[in-house]
What we know:
Mean pLDDT: 91
Largest sheet: 8 strands, mixed, barrel
Low-confidence stretches: 1-8
Shape: globular
Number of helices: 11
Oligomer: single chain
Strand content: 15-25%
Bound molecules: ligand C2E, magnesium ion
Radius of gyration: 19 Å
Amino acid sequence: RAKDEGGGEHCQYEPTLHAHAEERRKLEFSLRRALERDEFELHYQPVVDANDETVVSFEALVRWNSPEHGYVRPDKFISLAEDTRLIVPIGEWVLATACAEAVNWPPHVRVAVNVSGEQLIEPNFATTVVQALSDSGLPANRLEVEVTESIFLRDANVVRSALEQVMALGCTVALDDFGTGYSSLGYLRKLSFSTIKVDRSFVQGAAQGSAESLAIIRAVVAMADSLEMSTTAEGVENAEEAEMVRGLGCKKIQGYYFGRPMPVDEVQQVFARKGEVRARIA
Ligand code: C2E
Ligand code: MG
Ligand code: MG
Ligand code: MG
């Protein structure tokens, strides 16, 4: 797993503004060719049921291996793809590929796909989803779309309509990285998210004894419970953190403790071991 998360930092120096702009320009040049040159790959990270620790879904996380730039972390190229609108074709590829790969998994295992605001507000977003489902044969109820709070900075009617169309197809929608962004709670009343994903920063904070982080997790879980939404704790890295978030009432858990993002062939090996993820990867 050489090209995985790891440390692989690319900037050892503090770049000047010019060098930074130049690097971005080069990265953009390569990114424009990445799809046709087939340089993307999806890795999948397990999400487990907090109670019995069986796998309920895998989140698709895109990876870019560039011949010019080496392994580029999503944190770096996703924002560039959003700025240049390249996220629209890249996101289509992610959706189609995730559905095509997940159709081979056991029927109770779902796949979650991250969708950027730029992609969501495209007029034909729902059509893209329909296409990915029908091309792959994946039942709609096995696809979850993940969006972050930042989408609500866009036109509320457009966002709402796009999410409602996706839900009408039978897909679910999760609210990712909850608590880190734009936090008006009004949209929670209007849209039926299936799951709220509690951001890793709160899990890490609470694990390090932050009373504020702990209070926020408690509040989010209580709110989700009363709105009949599920909760996923992100970034759980050890048994103590798993125990903590389970105790706080989180319904599902995701994090390195249960498995790192892995290539699709390793996902199949997880099923061979009857879905008991933790036994193998960590
Ligand atoms: P995200 O959707 O919140 O995904 C979770 C990120 O947290 C992943 O980073 C994952 O590797 C990392 N992670 C999971 N468990 C742990 C843990 O226990 N400890 C730590 N330290 N980290 C953990 P990754 O793969 O680098 O992705 C970063 C972000 O890039 C994602 O955050 C998502 O916002 C975005 N992204 C990834 N793939 C796509 C995509 O296909 N489309 C779009 N639009 N965005 C994507
Ligand atoms: Mg996500
Ligand atoms: Mg997240
Ligand atoms: Mg995140």
